[in-house]
């Protein structure tokens, strides 16, 4: 069985697998009782491999990669939580039961099938041996001549290949953990004195914002791009009228389709954090590696605050990020409806940021560095909030009617064209909410850095989409953008197709260097 959905076709299932020939040969040669034990073992192995292939299919669709049997088990809990938020807790519980039943059924059917084959070849060893010799000769002819059906080789060794692949991934995960720990301890700016960190941004009102699933597809895909590009161009002009100007480029994200925290931590730390193990390793370091947030905190000239409307549980990583204060989903006073997974509309979260944080001066004459995660563009993109008058936001109850009139997740989640259309609308909403906030509340010293955390899932971006996300820096002070003139970014909020593309992990060092920070490396 293939482990990617796009490779499912009849030709894949009418090949002759060498593993079947070898397995049948072993079963033919064994006495009855050992044959039964070996058949059960064969069946269990095939059943487990089938389950892992199904896991790969799901992970490629949602995260753009295969399932890692060492690192990815905790993500199954997140998947159930996502289903509960999207389709209801009852549906999520039924899905969990269904998955368990399916796994048990696959294992049972595979074992019974292997026993049945073992009994068949055991009852007729002579006929079985002759049949195996003929089939083995046919397999060798197909392999040596590379005979194919619809471009698929007739001779197959898929199971052996997948076993090797999974064994290599296990070894790679173990090796990576040890190597990355050393990498995370080395830091270009790890020993930089506070006075030499971001001196060119002292006195600025810094705002770093991630927009959920804001990927290159939103700007370049034929379905989503017309609406999103029009919004970006309109908002560029609106900001210019308010005195703000922008430059934009591309970053290649460390994740795809989900696991947003990997994109956040990669951007802020300058480390390539592309799996959960790396994330745990680096965030457990208690600020050992300097994040951008921590750099501003370390200067002593900035208070640091996080606005996390999607955070609904404890978040010890705040210490690693270097955040003095964090507001989670329960601390922003929202009393309106959830929009699928998103706990509140971005416009409401931004208004609460304004009222609770941005409108208040930090103590001791400090400036402020704010870190916001916007969630309205999170899948499944139904229902989507709409902009309302800022003065009418209140406690969020104004969104009740908008929620009730919106599309249902079940109507969108399995339909690719509908998902693409609604995804584009969600990005338009998030970009509009953020830039209207800046237009309305931004100051002469405000500097906004905003970007996507990853591309949307394959159902929207395609099975072979790149991992690029747009990033923009917006400011009134022309000196802020002059500092990055040599980056060759595009003017405005919409990066050109040929604008520079950097790895997401490169941004931290480039940003710190551009704004006057002096490298003082520490070794791992």
UniProtKB/TrEMBL annotation:
Residues annotated as transmembrane: 36-55, 94-117, 129-147
Keywords annotated in UniProt: Membrane, Transmembrane, Transmembrane helix
Record keyword Transmembrane present: yes
Name by which UniProt lists this protein: CDP-alcohol phosphatidyltransferase
Taxonomic source organism: Streptomyces spinosisporus
């Amino acid at each position: 069985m293939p482990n990617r959905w796009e490779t499912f076709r009849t030709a894949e299932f009418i090949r002759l697998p060498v593993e079947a020939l070898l397995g049948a040969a072993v079963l033919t040669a064994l006495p009855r009782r050992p044959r039964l034990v070996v058949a059960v073992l064969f069946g269990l192995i095939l059943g487990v491999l089938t389950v892992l292939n199904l896991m790969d299919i799901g992970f490629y669709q949602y995260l753009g990669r295969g399932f890692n049997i060492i690192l990815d088990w905790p993500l199954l809990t997140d998947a159930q939580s996502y289903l509960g938020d999207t389709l209801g807790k009852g549906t999520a519980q039924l899905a969990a039961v269904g998955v368990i039943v399916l796994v048990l059924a696959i294992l049972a059917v595979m074992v019974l099938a292997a026993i049945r084959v073992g009994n068949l070849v055991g009852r007729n060893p002579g006929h079985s041996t002759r049949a195996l010799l003929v089939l083995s000769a046919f397999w060798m002819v197909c392999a040596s001549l590379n005979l194919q059906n619809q471009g698929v080789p007739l001779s197959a060794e898929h199971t052996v290949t997948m076993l090797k692949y999974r064994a290599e991934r296990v070894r790679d995960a173990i090796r990576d953990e040890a190597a990355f720990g050393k990498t995370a301890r080395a830091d270009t700016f790890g020993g930089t004195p506070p006075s030499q960190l971001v001196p060119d941004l002292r006195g600025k009102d810094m705002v770093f914002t991630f927009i959920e699933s804001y990927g290159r597809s939103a700007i370049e895909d034929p379905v989503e791009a017309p609406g999103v590009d029009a919004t970006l161009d309109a908002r560029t002009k609106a900001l210019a009228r308010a005195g703000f100007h922008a430059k934009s480029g591309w970053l290649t994200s460390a994740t795809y389709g989900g696991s947003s925290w990997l994109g956040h931590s990669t951007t802020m730390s300058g480390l390539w954090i592309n799996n959960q193990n790396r994330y745990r390793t680096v965030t457990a370091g208690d600020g050992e590696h300097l994040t951008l947030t921590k750099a501003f905190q370390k200067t002593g000239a900035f208070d640091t605050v996080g606005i996390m409307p999607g955070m609904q549980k404890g978040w010890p990583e705040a210490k690693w990020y270097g955040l003095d204060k964090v507001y989670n989903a329960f601390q922003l006073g929202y009393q309106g409806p959830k929009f699928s997974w998103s706990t509140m509309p971005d416009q409401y979260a931004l208004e609460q940021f304004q009222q609770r944080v941005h409108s208040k001066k930090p103590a001791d004459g400090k400036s402020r560095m704010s870190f916001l995660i916007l969630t309205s563009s999170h899948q499944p993109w139904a229902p989507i909030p709409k902009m309302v008058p800022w003065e009418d936001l209140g406690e969020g109850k104004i969104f009740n009617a908008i929620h009730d009139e919106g599309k249902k997740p079940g109507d969108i989640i399995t339909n690719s064209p509908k998902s693409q259309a609604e995804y584009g609308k969600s990005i338009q909403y998030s970009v509009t909410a953020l830039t209207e906030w800046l237009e309305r509340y931004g100051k002469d010293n405000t500097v906004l850095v905003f970007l996507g955390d990853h591309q949307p899932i394959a159902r929207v971006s395609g099975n072979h989409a790149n991992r690029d996300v747009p990033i923009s820096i917006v400011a009134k002070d022309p000196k802020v953008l002059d500092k990055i003139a040599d980056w060759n970014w595009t003017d405005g909020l919409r990066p050109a197709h040929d604008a520079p593309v950097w790895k997401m992990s490169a941004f931290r060092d480039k940003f710190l260097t551009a704004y006057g920070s002096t490298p003082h490396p520490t070794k791992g």
